[in-house]
Amino acid sequence: MKYGIEHVKEKLKDRLTTVHYEHCVRTAEAAARMARAFRIDERQAYLAGLLHDYARSMSAAQLISEAKKLGFRVNAVEAAFPYLLHARIGARLVELDLDIKDKEIVSAIENHTIGSTSMTKLDKIIYVADMIEPGRHYEGLDALRRISLEDLDEVFERAYIHSLGYLVRSKKLIHPLTVEVWNKLIAKNNEK
Asked: Are 114 and 5 in contact (CB under 8 A)?
């Protein structure tokens, strides 16, 4: 990466709404705390948290257009809810716009919304930090925050269950990858 944190923050201020920018800063701080607790690179976690919503302020039409420009396949769920594309698009754009070549950071950005069947520690940290940052408020959040520095696999699983439960309760479409991630979590638990 050829840019420092302050340059990245300035770039984000130009790209994001104030609300999204402030959320990114809080997510970065939460990610750095989690990284410290789980003994992984704090700067890497901070940067991934800062950049996780790089494409979040794009409109639905912009996300669809950018996905086509980048050659991404858009499935039916993503077409119905283009917001879901912001993680994948953001990951690619930080590589192109900011010359970020750190594959772990790019992966964490890409996987922070839907997840993947092979989540790294950093992927899990960014997924959880996005959900527990101090600006968030929802039922069940205090329990996630309490364990967020104790057991990474446990807090990720609980956070994923919370997200999936929200989708079901809200009668929203579920991304096919979400089903794959859920099935892998269940299979892993059944192996224990």
From this structure: no
